[in-house]
């Protein structure tokens, strides 16, 4: 089939063009054939049994639920009861989840078929999916390159047609950046729109679950399916679904902001050329554009790499190998057990960020670093609010480069961290943002649309209109 989207798959199932068992088996066959290392755990037996149940329901002319029979992949830091959840770490290599995450409950209710758990950077710390204890994921467009991180397994699985959609988590760009590298759509909702209950915490004030899909419409469908106000996550907000039909309306008199002097940004020339083409296309569509001051990107990156490690060091303090997790079991005393388990259970990048976070929270440094970062965070939120008084949304490239080579930046953490420069500000301010492919060949390039807090409807509307235009451009090329 030409498009691997939710509505097309659902129509094919209901029209009996193919069976759900054939669809699910095709996904597993693709996974086994491609060997991208995008999955850590597969649920083949359960998925095929569920597919058989869907086929029987279709045969008896029963109405399907909204996502019934649709194969989905889940990032392996989201809990599924009774299944292994590793966070791609040796520390949790054999840990079995005791309950469903809220988003899993929601997808179960809608009838989605879980194919398995996708690979990621260890504890979602990384930009390339190379820090995983289970090895790196390969980019389906070029297997010598990274898929992005930390939701690289989810992005690669969607791009390679190993599933129809996937869930990821986004703390500083971990949905949008791999979406850009793999040529798919990655949507990060506003902070609090989707429950984090059952998500292994990285940075509790920044984490947000969202979908990776093959279209903007699919992102809207999945978003509507997983958003909820949850008593187990007190940061969640009263649900307000997007209107799917309205995202397909024209952009009207909307004004789109873009960074001043964007051509001076430290980004590859092909990214600049792609972005320049987008601005020209917007003018051709009759859409007003306006320069905005986005000069605080550097500040946002610095703030992120203080707040995120600080909160990570606190969240990961519970992993000591005593109650659960990796345990060497031959320590001489309790202190040696703690030190050995954490040293051997965590990878290099996780230990690096724990050390940074512990330092910025330590006595004598907390005010100079962490408390200062929190004050700058509030200033960044204020600057976004000021911008959205004059524009309806902001566009900019999702990443400063296309997917880089495996191992190219792995031993240079500062360069790796700079790959997040266009995405982290969104998390710092808690805003909704989506990455969609503006160029698909030879390597994908992503465009990011950022909206005001709780304005997912507007973000998806603008992204949908741009997507339709990009499809035409890519088809012509």
Overview of this structure, please?
This protein is of the alpha/beta class and 477 residues long. Helix content is 40%, strand content 12%. It has a domain of 331 residues: Alpha-Beta Complex (Amidase signature (AS) enzymes), CATH 3.90.1300.10. Strands 1-3-2-4-6-5-10-11-9-7-8 form an eleven-stranded mixed sheet, sandwiched between helices. Helix 5 packs parallel to helix 6 and helix 10 packs across helix 13. The chain starts with 5 loop residues before the first helix and ends with a helix.
Secondary structure elements and pairings:
Blueprint: H1 6-14, H2 20-34, E1 39-42, H3 44-59, E2 71-75, H4 102-110, E3 113-118, H5 152-159, E4 165-169, H6 176-182, E5 185-188, E6 209-213, H7 216-226, H8 244-247, E7 255-259, H9 269-284, E8 288-292, H10 297-315, H11 334-345, H12 348-360, H13 367-387, E9 393-397, H14 413-418, H15 424-429, E10 433-439, E11 445-450, H16 456-476
Parallel strand pairs: 2-3, 2-4, 7-8, 7-9
Antiparallel strand pairs: 1-3, 4-6, 5-6, 5-10, 9-11, 10-11
Helix pairs in contact: 2-3, 5-6, 7-16, 10-12, 10-13
